[in-house]
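agent: user wants the structure for Sortase from Microbacterium gawkjiense. delegating to structure tool.
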Amino acid sequence: MKHKISKAAAALAVAIAAVFAAPAVASAYTPDTPVPSALVPGVPAPFPVPAGTFVPGETVTFTLTGEGVGPDNLAFVAFAVSSASVDKTATADGGAVATVTLPEDATGSYALTAVSESGASFAFPAVGVAAAAGGDGGGTDDGGAGGPALGNTGFDGDALLGLWVGGGVLVLAGASIAVATSVRRTRRA
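agent: tool returned. relaying tokens verbatim.
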């Protein structure tokens, strides 16, 4: 009887560890390469790809997709979603950098990807347009000429804390019932 109870207690401990360890490990991720989440129109911003992504010296094609994307500065024609590409050479450590400059009338969000000759690829998070500092961008009430920055659509672990705690309580309750049932059956036998 003691052997079955110790097995049940060990299973319960593993279940508890799994419930609480997974969110802690997932929230520990921090990207190696910081990139802007919003760009100010007319201001250049570098987008570095981490070292080791590409073969050193190979050609890497950066492609920007979004409203008004064109070949000059990667964005210039308004009201049309399109793409433009530029080729760069991977650095000696296998990284690469592209500089993106949005035009003064940029709106919406933009996607930037990098693909190499060898087929390796890297996709940056979507980038929105930030209002220029020091003014409202034209006297309108729409958040400035560039519009509002891209909203946060990612995972927020703090907001889901109640869900994780509630799920953990349910797992503990189920495990307790299973242990109690096992003990009751063992005593009857």
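agent: one observation worth passing along. Helices lie at 2-26, 161-188.
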